[in-house]
Every structure is written in C-alpha cells, then in structure tokens.
C-alpha cells in the first residue's frame, strides 16, 4: 500500500497535477485581482468582469503550463486556441454560476466565484492533460 502511494506521488501525472495547481494559484491571483478591480472598484457587471478576468488568467496559465509544466513548445498557436476554448467553456460555467447564484439567489459574488473556479479547475486539468498538452 505504501509503495503504491509512493509510486503515485512520483508519477508524472501527479507531479503535473501539483504544478498545474501551483500555476493555477498564480492564475487565480491574476483572475481574482482583475475581477475585484473590475467589479468592486469600477462597478462592472460581474459576468463581463468574469470573462475579462478569466481570459487574463488563462493567457497567463497557458504560457506557464506550456513552458514549465507540460514542456510542449510545438504548435503553440493551436495549443493556445484549444486551451483558451477549454478555459472559456469553464468560464461559461462560472459565469452561469455567478448569474444564478449572485443575481437570482443573492449569494456573495466572491464565494460563488471561488467554488465555481475550483470545480472548473479540476475539469480543465483533465481535458488539458488529455488534449491540449498531449505530446504529438
């Protein structure tokens, strides 16, 4: 049992997941910083602000993941488009969550964004590992 856990922790996929998470934290700082700036200080609509802030986080994370985590540098434009589409699909998910839980159910916009982002990140890792950063 301990050997299986040790092998799991040493596996390439586990290490990539940890790095993906760390890069994701950096992306969250970018995303949430811009989101807070746009919604709190500039009073922008939460859904529009979410699209802008998540786009900034996606761009940041794509380059970090390409060069430091998955280490794939070929077909960067194609990979970026795939990464961005996956990211924006999950952005659509977080935007729908914001609309429903903030506008209709009057929940806190930051708490809703945090929970929706955690779920979206787990989905993104699986798809990006299998599709976007698959070595060709």
Description of the structure:
This protein has 136 residues and is mostly helical. It has a domain of 93 residues. Helices cover 85% and strands 0% of the residues. It is built from five helices and no strands. Helix 2 packs antiparallel against helix 3, helix 3 runs antiparallel to helix 4 and helix 4 packs antiparallel against helix 5. The model has no long low-confidence stretch (mean pLDDT 89). Keywords: Membrane, Transmembrane, Transmembrane helix. Belongs to the GtrA family. It is found in: Membrane. Its main location: membrane. One of its GO terms (biological process) is polysaccharide biosynthetic process.
Instruction: State the helicity in percent bands.
Output: over 70%
Ends distance: 34 Å
Assign the structural class, choosing from mainly alpha, mainly beta, alpha/beta, alpha+beta, or little secondary structure.
mainly alpha
Q: How many DSSP H or I helices? A: 5
In terms of DSSP E residues, the strand content is under 5%
**Total beta strands:** 0
Uncertain stretches: none
Radius of gyration, in angstroms, nearest whole number: 16 Å
Order of helices and strands: HHHHH
Largest sheet: none
Task: Estimate the global geometry from the Cα principal axes.
Answer: globular
Mean pLDDT across all residues, rounded?
Answer: 89
State the gist of this model:
The chain has 136 residues and is mainly α. The chain has helices spanning 2-10, 12-41, 46-69, 76-104, 109-132. The mean pLDDT is 89.
Features:
single chain, 136 residues, mainly alpha, 5 helices, 85% helix, globular, transmembrane, membrane, GtrA/DPMS transmembrane domain-containing protein, GtrA_CellWall_Glycosyl, transmembrane helix
């Amino acid at each position: 049992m301990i050997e299986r856990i040790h092998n799991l922790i040493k596996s390439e996929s586990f290490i990539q997941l940890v790095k993906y998470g760390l890069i994701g934290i950096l992306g969250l700082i970018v995303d949430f910083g811009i989101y807070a700036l746009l919604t709190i200080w500039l009073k922008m609509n939460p859904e529009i602000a979410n699209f802008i802030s998540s786009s900034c986080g996606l761009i940041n994370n794509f380059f970090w993941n390409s060069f430091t985590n998955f280490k794939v540098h070929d077909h960067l434009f194609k990979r970026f488009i795939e990464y961005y589409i996956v990211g924006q699909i999950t952005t659509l998910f977080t935007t729908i969550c914001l609309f429903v839980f903030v506008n209709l159910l009057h929940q806190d916009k930051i708490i809703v964004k945090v929970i929706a982002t955690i779920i979206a990140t787990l989905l993104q890792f699986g798809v990006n590992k299998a599709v976007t950063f698959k070595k060709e």
